[in-house]
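One example copied in:
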Amino acid sequence: MDLISALQFLRLDEIPEAWVEAVWDLEFTEGKPLDDTIEEELAAWPVFLGQKLLLRHQVPPFQHEENPRESIWTILGDNGVSIRSLVAVLSVFVQAGKAKGANVQQRVNGLYAASLYLLLLGIPGSIANKVFHEVLLDTCSDLTSHCWPQDSGKKRKKDSLKSSQADGKRSKPQRKDAREMKMDDAEEEEEEEEYHFSGQDLMKMRDAVTFLVQSLLRLLQTFPLKDRPHSASNCIRIFSKLLYFEPVIGELTFAAERDVAKLRTVPEMAFYGLQLLCSPKHGDQKESLQTLFHRLLYVILMMNKGNSRKPSLLVPNQANLATRDQAIQFVCYLVGELKELALPVLQILLQHICFQMVEKNEYRTHGAQAVGMLTSRMANTDYACFIKWLFKFSRNSKMVHRLFSIDVVMVLLEQQERTEEYQDPELSCFLPHKFLIQNLLFARRVDESPTVQGHALACLAQCLELPSLNITRAVHTLFSATPAVTVRETSECHLKDFCHRCWAAFCTHVQELVACSYFLEMLLLHCIYILKAAKENLALLLRRAKNSKTNVRKSALQALLGLLKHGVIPMSCENLGTLSERCRDPAVSVKKKALQCVGELLAAKPECREVQKVWLQGVVPAVVDSENSVQDKALEALDQVLLSQIKPYSASSHMSVSQRLTWDLLDLLCNECQNLSQYFSRAFTMWSKQNKFTSAFVTNLVSHTEADHAAGAWLLLSKVVTSSHKVPYGKILDTWDTMDVNVTTCCHILCVIGDIAAHLNEDTKDRIVADLMSWLKTFTLSLEVISAAVETLYQLGKNEDIKQTQAFLDQHCGDLVSVCEAYLANIILSENGTQNLNEEMMVKYLHTLGVASLHCPTKVGKRTVLLVESVLTTHSDKLPASLPLSQFKANSLPTRVRAHGVITLGKMCLQDEELVHRYLPVFARELEVGTEVAVRNNVVVIMCDMCVRYTNIVDHYIPNISACLRDSDAVIREQTLIMLTNLLQEEFVKWKGSLFFRFMVALVDPDPAIASLCEYCLLHLLLKKTPEMFSQHFIECIFHFNSYNKHSSYNKFPQTEREKVQFSLKGAQHREKRFRIYHFLLEHFTDAQRFNITNKINQTILACFADEELPLDADGAEILSETFSILSLKEMKVQAILTPAGEEPEEENMATMAKAVLQAAQKKVVSQVQKKAFMENTVPLIISLKNLLEEKRSPVLKDLMAYLQVKMQDYRNEVKEFFSGDEQLAAEVEFALKMSEREREVQKQMENCSLTEKTKTPPAQRSQLCLPESCAHVTYHLCPKPIKYTSVIHTVCIHICVYSMYSLCLGEAFCGKWNVQSPLRQKKRSSRV
C-alpha cells in the first residue's frame, strides 16, 4: 500500500470545505467538530497511517534530496489530495490527543498525526503549499507535555519529597501562591478522571513520543526558523522540558552532526535539538544562546520555572542531579565549540546562577560545583572578569548571595591556580588563589550576618586541608608573619627590634633610598601592618569563638582547630584555652563541636603537653554535663583514649604512640590536673554500671604498677577496683609492703587498700592497721595522706555491726585524738610552748585531730575543744558570742595555724549542735571584722557546711555570709559565690532578704572572672530553678541600688548600716554599674515579663510620683530619672514586635511561611495590646508627671521628654492621637522627633562625606591593597633616626593610591546582555556589606 492509498482512508474528498475553512479561520486554537459518521470512520485510520509512516524511509519523496525527480506536492495534487484538508484533519487528531481525558489510542494517534505534520512541514515547498502555520507547529511540537501522563511522575515526586522531608526540615516543599494552589486543586480533580495506564500503554506512548521528537529534529535539520523567533524559543522550551523525560543510557556525548535514528533516548534527542537551534539558520546565534542558557539556568539550579512567576525547587534526587550534570556538560561543549561567541553569555549565566541561588545548603553546594565546572572552560581574561564580578557580588546586601560567594570560592580553590602571566595589570590581581582567600573568603569574617560569618570561618579551616601550597601560604599570611618574620616576633619588643634591623640593613646597603625615604617608610609600615594585622585577625577569631550565635562559635572553633593543627598559630594558653572553654558552652551543639575539636587536635599533636592538658580540661568535666548526649560523647572520648589503650606491660616491648599518650594523660591527672579528680571519678561511676571493667583489664593495670608510669596505673586502680570482681590482691599487698612513692600515688594506693579491705583476712587487716597507726602517730605524712590514711582506717574497721565499727573507730581514732590533745596541751599550756613552735607539725596535729574527730565524736572532750579554741585565742574560757576571735588577746601563732584551727573547730561543730550554737556567732563576727584572709575564707567554708547540717540555725547568718560577696579579697568573694550557689541549688538557702541584690552586685565585680562566674551561676544554674526570679526583684533593684527607702513596699528588709554602705550603688559614679545590672536582667526577660514589668513600673513608681505619694526631692528625682532611662532601654521593648536582625531567608517553604504568618499575626496582636496599654495606662501618668515637673521646674523633665522621644518612634504618625488631652505636649514630642531625625540625617551625611571613611579599606582587603592609615605615625617611634623627607603630602599620596586600587577592585564588573538583562542591571542598587 503506497502513501496515496493510505491517505484515501482519510476520505479527504468527503470533508466539507466549510469545515476546513472554519478550522483554518480558528487558527487551530480549538477543535471544530466533524460529522459523527466521518469521525467514526476516521477513528481506525491512524493505525494504518502509523504503520505507513514507519516505512517512510522507503518513500523517495520523504528523503531529503536536493532535487527529487517528482515532488510530493505534485503527487498529492495529481491525486486530488487537498493540503488544507489534510492539515485540518491532522489537527483534529492533535486536538483529540491533547484533550485532558484522552485515552491511550487518542494520545498515540495525536502524536503520530503531529509527527506527520512535522514531516510534511520539513519537505521543501511546504511554505509555498501553505502547510506552515505557527500555532499548529507550536501545538504539535509541544504535544508531548499533554500526551505523556504526568500523574505517575507527580506521585513519585511527592513521595520523594516526603522522604526528603524526613531527612531534615530544610527539604520541605516550597510555598505556592493562590494561582498555583488552584492549579494543583484542578490537577487533583483531573487525576481522578484520568486513566491508569499499564506498562504496555506507556511503551506505546513512549514510542510515539520518540517518533515525534525525531520528526521535530528532522524538521530542524531542513526547516530554518530564523524568521520565526517565537517558534525557535518555543522549541528551546520544549527540549528543555524533555531533558527530564527519562534517564540517559550510558555516557552522553555531543557532536555537530548526528544520525537522528541512532539516538536512543529522548534526552539525547533533546540535547541534539538544542544544539541544532544554536546554528545560524535558526536565528542570531548570540540571541539563541541567551535563550538557551536562560532555560538551562533552571536545569542547573534544579528549579521548575513553569508558568508561575517564581520558580519552585525540584527534589535533588539522582535523576535531577544527572540531568543537571548533563546540562552543565552541554554548556561546556557549546562554549568549547562557539568560544568567543558563547563566553559573554556564559558570564551572564554564571551571574544568574549566583543571583538566583537559594539558601538551602544542598542546592548551594551543587550550584557552586556548577560554577566551578563552567569557569574551568574560561580563559584567564574571562576568569579574571568573573572573579572581579564575584568580588562585588560577595558584598551584596542579600545574605544568601554573600553565603553563596563563599561556596563558589571554595570550589574555585580546588581548581589548579592560574599562574600564567597576565598582561592586563587591572585583572591580573584576581587570578591568584590568595585573592580568593583574603579578599573574598576571609573578608566575610566580619559580615553582618552570623550565618555568613560562621560559614566563612568554617571554609577557612577547610582551606588548610587543600593540597595547594599557595593556599596554605595565603592563610599563614593572615594569621602569622611572612617567612622572614616568625610568629614569636609579633610582640611589641620583637617588632621594634625587627624594624631596627631593617633600618640598619637599608642604611648600610641601599644609600640611594635616603633621598626617597618615603619608600622606606612605606616598607616599614607594610611590615608593621602585616604583623599587627595577623595579631588582630587572631584576636577577632578568638572573639568569634565567644560570639552570641551558635553557628559562629562552632565555625570559629573549626577554624581555630585548623590553624593549630597546621602550626599557623602557636600553641599558646589563650589559643588552646578557647577550645577547652567552649567545652562548657551553654549550647549543646557548641559543646559537642568543642569536644570534637580537642579530640582532633590531640590526635594531630599527641606528644604536645599543652594539648594534652587542654584535652583533659575540656573532656573530663563534660562527664557531668547536664546534657546526656554531651556526657556520652565525653565518656566515649575517655574510653577511646584512656581505657582502650591499657595493654599488658612488658619492659622489653615498645609502647605505641597511643599507649604513650594514655600514660602521659594519666600522669597529668596525677600531678598538674588533680583538680579534675572528682569529674574523673564520676566517669568511672558511670562505667561501673555498664560492667566495663573486666578482670583482664584490672590485671593489665596491675602489671603497670611496677613501671615508670605506675602513678597512672594506681590512679586507675583506685577508680576501678570496687567495680571488679577478680582482683590480684597479692600483687597489691606486695606493693603495700614495699611502698616508696610520692604523695599522690600514696593516696591512690591507700584508696585501693580501703576498697579491697572487705576481701582481706583479719591478720592482713591487723597488719595494715598497725602500719597505718604507726605512720599516723609519727605525724610525718602530708595532709592529703593523713586524710586518706584515716579513711582507709575506717574502711578496714568497717563491719556489718555498726557498734563494732564504732568501737573500732573509738579505739584507733580516739587514740589519735588523745595524742593530738596531748601535743596541743604541751604547746598551749606551757608557758614557753609557742616560742619553739614547729608550724608544719602543728598544722599536721590540728589536721589529724579534725579528721579523726569526725569518726569518734564521743572521744572529743571539752578540754580538746578548749585547746583548739586556744589556738585561735589565748583564752581557755568560753568565748563571748559578741566578740570576734581577733578581738581577744593576740597570740603568737601564725595565720596558717589559726586557719587550720578554724577548720578543725568547724569539724567538731559538725558533730555537736551545742558547739554550733556556741561558736556560730563568733564565726559571723570574724567575717565582719577579721583581717586574715585565710581565716575568713575557712570561716565561710565551715559556715556553709554547717548550713547543710543545721539549716535552720545557720539561716539567720546567711546575710553575714553573703556580705562576703563584697569582701576586699577576690578569693573570698569567689569562694562565697560558689558556696552560696551550691546551697541555693540544693535549696538549703532561699532567695530571702538582700541575697538576690548581693548576687546582682557580684555581676559588676571589679574582677571580670568573678563577674563572669556570677553570670554563669545565675543563668545556667539558678534561673532554671526559679524562672520568675529576675522579674520578681527588678523593681526593687531600682530602689535598693539607689538606697531609696521612702517607698511603702520596697527596700524594707533589715540591713546593718555597714551592709547598706557596702552594697550601695547610689550616685552618678555607679550609674554605669546599675545599668549593667538592668541590661542583664531585661535581656533574660520573656515578652510577658517585659509587658508586665512596664505596667508594674507605671503603677508602683510613676503613679506614686504623679499622685505625690513619693516626694519629688533630690532622691526622688534620681529615682524618677532612672526609671525613665530604664523605660527607654531597647531591652524593655517586647521582642515579638521587633524586626529580627539580618535578612529573611531567600527560600520560602510551608514551614517558614507558616512561621512568618504566625509571627506577623502575633506581632500585630501584641502591638495592638501594647498600644492600648500605653494609651490607657502610661499616657495619663506622663501628662500628669509633665505638669508636675513643669510646676516644680524639675530637671527630670528632660528625661521624661527623652523617654517620649524613644517611645514615640514606634508611633510616629499617631502622636496627636496619643496626646489628644495635651496639645502642647503633642507638639513638643513632634518637634523633638523631627529634630532627632534631622540630627541623624546630618550625622549620616557627615559620615558619608568623611575622607577617612571614603579611603578606609575594608578589613579583608587591607592586606592586599594598601597600608592602614592608623600606622602612619608608628614609623617615627620605631626608627632609630627620624625620616627627614616624609611629609603630609606623602601620606595623602598613599591615600590616593589606596583609594585608586580599592576603586579598581570595586569597579563596574563585566555584564553582558541577557534577553531579560543582566542581574546587576536588573537591580537599581546593590549595597555593599
